[in-house]
Amino acid sequence: MTLLSRRQALKSTGLLSAGFFLSTSVTRALAQAAAATGPHKLEPLPYAANALEPHFDARTMEIHHDKHHAAYVTNLNKALADYPDLQKLSVEELLKDLNKVPEKIRTAVRNHGGGHYNHTLFWQTLRPEGGSGPEGPLAEALGSLFGDKEEGQKLFLEKCLTLFGSGWVWLSIDSSKKLVLESLPNQDSPLSKGSTPLVGLDLWEHAYYLKFQNRRADYVKAFFPLINWEFIQQRFEKIAG
Ligand code: MN
Question: Which of 2, 52, 125, 207 has the CB geometry, 3.0–4.6 Å to 202, for a possible disulfide?
């Protein structure tokens, strides 16, 4: 949000004249309001920001969702501002066929559309610790890809540690409906290369630096107990089934 639009947003809600102190919830409401100018919206986190403690800390979750994710939504809407036909498409439709996006805004849609889609999925694939899974056909598919759970986590961690720079590691279903582990740079979405992501881990430093600093491995290990296997299982059965 620019300083001007922030002032305008404050003014319009009467907060500026009231000298209102910017609490977290007000900041969040402003971020959502700013992102709302356009077809794409920032949905609230599906749980409280502190729900994933002690693995993922509340402050990182707040900044990650309210600032970083919000900015992807705002910038996607901005990129589409002059393209009413493209505004009718879902973010999935845009990312699945970036060639139908004019060259002038293709990189912006790839980066910010990818950022919006990837983060929306990311929040949904996390949950406070305690659930079970995976089970059924997903457990079988994971077994044939990785062997056992320990080996799966080891391979996932290795993939995360060898990704250079910013990007994500994904567990996806490829075009032949096979489970694959893949790493992609920046906010590139598996959708743009013909696969469908089941779950991914954000390896941008903004996702972990506040709590873990340079200890990327500790961040990856903190992610494992948070994986929402019920959600991923439903997704797997819908896509592969
Ligand atoms: Mn992120």
Answer: 207
Q: Other C-beta atoms within 10 Å of 175: how many?
A: 9
- Kindly report the CATH number assigned to the domain that includes residue 68: 3.55.40.20
* Residue 28: predicted pLDDT: 60
**Alpha carbon of residue 202 to chain centroid:** 7
In the reported structure, the alpha carbon of residue 14 is separated from the centroid of ligand 1 by a whole-number distance in angstroms of 32
- Report the predicted TM-score, pTM, of the whole model to 2 decimal places: 0.85
Cβ burial of 158 (10 Å; 0-12, 13-18, 19+) is: middle
> What is the distance in A from the centroid of ligand 1 to the CA of 113?
13
- Which residues are paired to 227 by β-bridges? 126
Number of domains in the chain: 1
Give residue 61 CA to ligand 1 midpoint distance, Å. Answer: 10
pLDDT of res. 129 = 80
Range of the domain at 214: 54-241
User: Which parts of the chain register pLDDT below 70?
Assistant: 1-36
pLDDT value at position 7? 45
In a domain, 48, yes or no: no
